[in-house]
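Chain A, query sequence.
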Amino acid sequence: MQLRFWASLVVFIGSYFPLSLILLVQDFKYEVLWAPICWPPNGNTCALPLRNGSLSLSIFVLSLICVFITLGVLSTVRPKTPIRVHEAKYIPAELMSYTLPYVVSFMSLDYRDTGKFVGLLIFLGWMFLITYRSGQLILNPLLAVFGWRLYEVSLSYPGDEKRYPVRAMSKDDLQLPGPADAATIQDVMLIKSKRPKADDS
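Chain A, predicted structure.
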């Protein structure tokens, strides 16, 4: 299951939105929390209540945009290809690779410490290459928070008895065996289960 490079980068950056929020909170000047609100920031009489204002805020906004793009694209896909799901095995999200940067964020990481910040960027870049090349990028804990789950699925198409093993994402509890609809977006299959219609009585 391989996404194209730029789509993968958007998904990866969005998956670290919670980390950007943690770093933004750590960068906040809490001593000015109750100070009068002034706007717009001009650097002299009025400034952002952040130690590294533009940098921490830019990273936060970028990751937030990536989250919205990822969820927006997934929500617009309408599975229409009929399939039959024979088997489905849930694949839990890979938490370790996503947990390590959060641990680093609590080890006195400061945007003003250029060495540590560049080191974190190199580490995240390395993690991106590993997950991208291994095809494991979609094992994303943030997507799991929004109800998406990754499955190892055995499916067939109408008029074709052959079963095809694929990895697919779904927000539904897949009925086994049962009919479903599928769509593919950049080599990622999305499955929507077909609910049986209630009998008219």
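The chain has a mean pLDDT of 79. The helical segments are 5-15, 17-27, 53-76, 96-105, 114-134, 141-145.
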